[in-house]
Design goal:
It is built from 3 helices and 5 strands, in the order E-H-H-E-E-E-E-H. The protein is an alpha+beta fold and 142 residues long. A 5-stranded antiparallel sheet has the order 1-3-4-5-2, with helices on one face. A hairpin with a 5-residue loop joins strand 3 and strand 4.
């Protein structure tokens, strides 16, 4: 049986405010692009921040990694691919690929890791019930 993958693809245009004086996207904006991907994934797959919050949890990011491959310039369009990564741990892990729509080249790749906490900051060591049910419903449980 083929492994089920949950992926979201989102397009976004590079705005003038996202480039440096050379017209190249400033490196710090890639983390924002990852955030755009996480939000788009959450909307498509019912795992948005408000879904987590409304179930009584927070999901702070504890790690972000970005590997830059190519530059991208003002007035280009990016494709942000966000893929859910299965994990036995009580974490939400995403892999990202950012592509230049025109050239189809990968301009950056990365990963983010979020953990679950209660509103008081207590770390959850097991999947919250709503998340375990979500994984089961989506066919991505381990």
């Amino acid at each position: 049986m083929e492994e089920k993958k949950l992926v979201n693809r989102k397009e976004g245009d590079i705005r003038f405010s996202e480039v440096d004086s050379m017209g190249v996207v400033w490196h710090g904006h890639y983390v924002k692009f990852f955030e755009d991907g996480r939000e788009s994934f959450g909307k498509e797959h019912d795992l948005g921040y408000m879904d987590i919050y409304n179930n009584g949890y927070h999901a702070p990011i504890v790690k972000v990694e970005c590997n830059y491959k190519k530059t991208v310039n003002y007035d280009e369009t990016l494709i942000i691919e966000t893929e859910f990564v299965k994990s036995k741990a009580a974490k939400i892990i995403f892999n990202f690929k950012i592509l230049n729509k025109r050239t189809k080249e990968i301009v950056a790749e990365g990963e983010s890791i979020q953990v679950f906490t209660l509103p008081n900051g207590e770390l959850m060591l097991t999947d919250p019930p709503f998340y375990a049910e979500w994984k089961k419903r989506k066919g991505v449980f381990i």
